[in-house]
Amino acid sequence: MLNKPLLVESLIVFIAVLCVHTVVWDRYSWCAIALAVQAFYVQFKWDSLLQIGGAVFQFRTTANSGLLPASMVVPLLGIVMKERCKSAGIVFFERFGIVVASTGMLVALFLSVIAVGITKPVPTNTCILTGIAGSIIIYTMKHSLTVSEVIEVLEVLLIFVYLSMILLYLLPRCFTPGEALLVIEGISFVLNQLIKRSLNVVESRGDPIDFFLLVTVVGVVLLGIIFTVLFLFMDSGTWISSMFFHMMTAVLGLGVIMPWLYRLIQRNPLFWLLQFLFQTQTRIYLLVYWTMLAASACGVVFYQNAKRSSESKKHQASTITRKYFHFIVVATYVPGLIYDRQLLYVAAVLCLAVFIFLEYIRYFRIKPFGQTLRHLLSLFLDERDSGPLILTHIYLLLGMSLPVWLFPRPCAPKGTLSGAGALVPYSGVLAVGVGDTMASVLGSTMGEIKWPGTKKTFEGTMMAIFAQIIAVALILIFDSSVNLNSSYAWILGSVSLVSLLEAYTTQIDNLLLPLYLQIMLMV
């Protein structure tokens, strides 16, 4: 029996793919369509493997595989980036967009081949579709990429394979196959770029804040892998292990990460960071304001836990309570986007490092705060946190930050894109901070008409669309750099499509929705 919500989700993704390629039609369009068709069929094989427990690793079982929506994100991002940079005449980043699109297609195809290979009996029709899609993609790559670009694509694929085996073994039930594809593919890209730029420091191009992002992401992932392996052989909850954890963190930070960053930016990283953060009066005001918001978020956590302690029955945070953090994040990001996007870029990187480091302390029960964090955060768990890690708050930060980090600054004259592209940095704010929040709050309190096969409501989706349109109007009023050039119909269609995706997807919407809205706006 076919899963109707899955079919609707797939239809929404196909519409997004076709919308992109009605604007951008070239040789890569055939590749993207072929990839989408084969991913649609292969995701049913992944779903069957998850249901019978036949997948190689343990995935999150409360959702479908999510292969189709995840498979299309990176290829579409690369294609729209290529077109934007081609229009701006930036050849280097145009070629980089082609590499990103090609790598995304090849990695998604690899994951599809894995699913087909371990399905018994072998699905003949799906194998044929996968073979046709693979032939189209490889043929296009052969006639589009230089030898060095082919090597770069294969490097990312190799890193993806090894990271998948490591992370999926160490973190069971934390991801669906689609979420694993997005997260591990992103880390693989970052690691490959960092290695490439480290080996060619003289020739490497980029802003110091880009290097800061690369080194920070690789550093925290490397830290987690090292400690996960070490604590397989020792109890992480003792004071000796905790002291070892803090000492090794200091050694890796000061002895590896800091020198690595120094090599890339050619200056002392600490002095550079302090000078950057306190460079202008506006930045000082923003930092003070963000500190107050962080304190208020901590206050919500402590208050809800005190409320739980005072009640005899088991207390769990409601949907509305969890959305408090969405409101706080919106209040954090909007001033940064309006007044100083570079500061927001760096602050989001620092916040990501802090979130992941605190999650390590909670997961490994590092003294003196590990057990306390476990108790405090357990209140906010939901069905998506079925693995050993709590990732929803990290996904929220990533969803808000990725449009800022992935914004093609070199291809944007005067720091902004034309038309609907001017809203690209606001994709996370619109899709997650406004749309998802209003859909959840109104849907859980007033919604009565449910979308077929889901718990989401029609009223929630309509409110999400309406709230995002109001948010766009407010952005036009307060951000003078945004000029939509009469592209209102495209913005309305993009917002509506992503809101429908929110209603039907079972993947982590905090991660998926901003990326799809960014793709639709950037094209």
UniProtKB/TrEMBL annotation:
One BP term from GO: dolichyl monophosphate biosynthetic process
Full protein name: dolichol kinase
Places the protein is found: Endoplasmic reticulum membrane
Key word Transmembrane present: yes
GO cellular component terms attached to this protein's record: endoplasmic reticulum membrane
Bilayer topology: Multi-pass membrane protein
Family matches, as InterPro entries: Polypren_kinase
MF terms (GO), sorted A to Z: dolichol kinase activity
Root EC class: transferase
Keywords: Endoplasmic reticulum, Kinase, Membrane, Transferase, Transmembrane, Transmembrane helix
Its EC number(s): 2.7.1.108
Segments traversing the membrane: 12-41, 92-116, 122-141, 153-171, 211-232, 244-262, 282-303, 324-339, 345-365, 386-406, 426-446, 458-478
Main location group: endoplasmic reticulum
UniProt record similarity statement: Belongs to the polyprenol kinase family.
Superkingdom in the source lineage: Eukaryota
